[in-house]
Design a protein that fits this description.
Two copies of one chain form a homodimer. The first copy, chain A, is an alpha/beta fold and about 425 residues long. Chain A contains 13 helices and 17 strands. In chain A, helix 2 packs parallel to helix 6 and helix 9 runs parallel beside helix 13. The first copy, chain A, is elongated, with a radius of gyration of 28 Å.
Amino acid sequence: MRIEVVAVGTELLLGQIADTNSAWLGEHLAASGIDSHFHQAVGDNHARIVLALRTALARSDGVIVCGGLGPTQDDITREAIAEVMNVPIDRDESLIGAIRTVFSARNREMPESNLRQADVPRGATPIPQVMGTAPGLICTVGNKVVYAVPGVPYEMAEMFERAILPDLLARSGEKATIVSRVVRVWGMSESGLADLLAPRIEALDAMGGNPTIAFLASGIEGIKVRITAKASDREQADALLETEQRQVLALIGDSVFSADDRSMEEAVADALVAAGLTLGIAESLTGGLVASRLVEVEGASNWFKGSIVSYASEVKRSLLGVPDGPVVSDAAVLAMASNARTVLGSDIGMALSGVAGPTEQDGKPPGTVFVGLALPGEDAQAVELHLPGDRQRVRQYATISALDLLRRRLTARSTTTTWS
Amino acid sequence: MRIEVVAVGTELLLGQIADTNSAWLGEHLAASGIDSHFHQAVGDNHARIVLALRTALARSDGVIVCGGLGPTQDDITREAIAEVMNVPIDRDESLIGAIRTVFSARNREMPESNLRQADVPRGATPIPQVMGTAPGLICTVGNKVVYAVPGVPYEMAEMFERAILPDLLARSGEKATIVSRVVRVWGMSESGLADLLAPRIEALDAMGGNPTIAFLASGIEGIKVRITAKASDREQADALLETEQRQVLALIGDSVFSADDRSMEEAVADALVAAGLTLGIAESLTGGLVASRLVEVEGASNWFKGSIVSYASEVKRSLLGVPDGPVVSDAAVLAMASNARTVLGSDIGMALSGVAGPTEQDGKPPGTVFVGLALPGEDAQAVELHLPGDRQRVRQYATISALDLLRRRLTARSTTTTWS
């Protein structure tokens, strides 16, 4: 069964609000094994809503239309559906009573305009509201179906789960469960990963395409590899996923920073907690970005001491003992990493210094970044990176690259193999 | 001229990522006077992309298709456009050279799969890339047009502004010049601002709707008020804008932090440069976020010294002399702000300490934030804020609120009136 989502509202087309409803519905339809091949957004215009609904019904088995069920003149989804059904509209007395009750419960008089929310295309089944005032609709059109839900996200979600999904599953006869897992990767290009996974993807296709592997380049967040399995119950779907995930992890190796859709900073946090070590940072070009990502992890205060954002060179020298000479250098980040440990009282010191751009510094081109790492019982080490992009991207890449270097060093120190 | 946006990517239909591109394009098309009556999202499937493009071309004058231009097997937008144009695909040698150059600049070999990005439907004009590897396309289909852009948001935006918008305006024969300015506001609710501007918006409507005023709540970035004027030439449009902007600025007052769509950190930078003062920060709950926003401003090294991210309480005491007692307090941020000046050698010290959540700290509920400001020749001052939201939003609100407090203090010190 294929369901198309149609979001109604001129504000969506103008980019004034983001259409989170379509994404939510897409996710929840997929999780129930219902395909959604197209989404549309359309403004508050009768002819265009009618056209969007007819387009959707022509290429899908049903439509969920979100929004345009309010009490204002702009809310014309009911009328558009009636035209598509080719039926008149009736005002439903029992719905008027329900809407009046919502207002009286709030000690308010029902405005005249709310009467429109009791309008029902003849032959449609209203979905009672339990949160707001706009009832939903289930409308049969030939052998297809149009569901109308309010645009308010929590009203939409509640109505979808209570009334639409059961109706949809009954119509589709679908019994399968669909589950997916996301593996996250840093340090490979999308095309490199594609080449690596291509034989496995082809093999799965040849075996009937279950599970499937898809990947999504997520810029400075690396690449997400999603494995999706379909089976008659959750347990079987999980078993399929488990087997496939093991193969994918083995293929990609240590460029995987999370096997379960966690962020790089969470991966670093896990590695620090496992090692029982605390972290202090000295950062220059990233200006606090590394620290600000780390504190997003709940419980960061257990392993994160702080960061010296030594943006000015004199701060590097006075607080972190950086020797005379260029501050974008091995020598600078080695001093910064070692002294960050002392100044912040941490087990590990990590340091970043580099050229964000747009102009060169100390004869080094934009994108040149040094990362220093001082781990207990080891000599401090420095790594030189050359990163692409403008000022902001160099910073973002420097941040995630440094975190990944730390993660790899901690993983290499540990005797347990992470992905076995 | 009516342009439909078609976003390509199965991950959009599955709700794995939100489609921010369509909203961005809708906003920027509208700002240039180009209507967008429908948006569509479609998965990575040849027949369905073709159908989505044909549907869009049937009901609009042109299409901007986003995504599906990458190097992987999933990226099939080029092939779908070729089918809609009914032409074969040629591999463009000069594009191969450009892609190879991107890889060699990163000291990497170009994977074989990237050759696909040099494929061009015959008769289409490539839009050269300046940031990544995927070229865009301008494809004439009968008397209509299909523009293809990469799905990576900043690559899409850059290509839209550099190549697509000029081409669109040339095709539309739009002779009028449409110019807009964005005034940015912090410290007012959307409904408060709506009430304030309603009489002015009604007056403009009554006078023919030129210029127009629209606003867009942008969460932690405040509210954007866009004034758009249309005239036969740039000079007249600018004159209309200038007059209207003056009225809007006078109505809103000092909640305006930028009259020309600059960010809060740029507004702070302007105020610091005008005052000839340098800034040093001590931050706790924001974990480097304040510093990382400030260094995004070009030339930050002229006025920004650095930040002590004192996440652990012992770092607050050892480096910043915070006295015994609760670290979420007036006393703590006053010490942090004053000592940040000394430690970092700056004219101004700003400090933040607070409870990001999810649990309370020192008996203070999540959202409690203290901001300290130490300006030269003045007693240090502390302000207590109560901010809404989860951990991440409390941090973001704390950051922009602190920057806004500094901006207002610097503006109040200055004798020149900023918006006259």
